[in-house]
Amino acid sequence: MLDTELLRRDYDGNPAAWNKAKRMLNILADKVETVAPWLADQILASNQNGGRIAWLTTPKIAWRFATSRIRPRRILD
To answer: Is residue 74, in this structure, part of any structural domain at all?
Structure first.
């Protein structure tokens, strides 16, 4: 999940929904400039057709939720 204009556009004109979603998105989302270099390296290193490349894995999701109160992430304004 990336912080993009497409993601934010879903909440245009609905600040209450944006504030509610923002809590979850700050845990799960990442900035494009963080993910893009890693993703490009993974794609270029892969020599497998139909391979799977996953940035946000289940263990990473669990870790982010477990530490969200201790180390809050500020991805979205």
So the answer is: no
| Domain enclosing residue 49, as ranges | 5-66
Whether residue 54 has pLDDT greater than 90: yes
71 assigned to some structural domain:
no
Q: How far apart are CA 3 and CA 29, in angstroms?
A: 6
Residue type, 77: D
Q: For the chain, what's the residue count?
A: 77
Q: How many structural domains compose the chain?
A: 1
DSSP 59: H
Q: Tens of pLDDT along 8-29?
A: 888 888 999 999 999 999 999 9
Give pTM, 2 decimals.
Answer: 0.78
Q: How many helices (H) and strands (E) does the chain have?
A: 4, 0
Give a yes or no: residue 73 inside a domain.
Answer: no
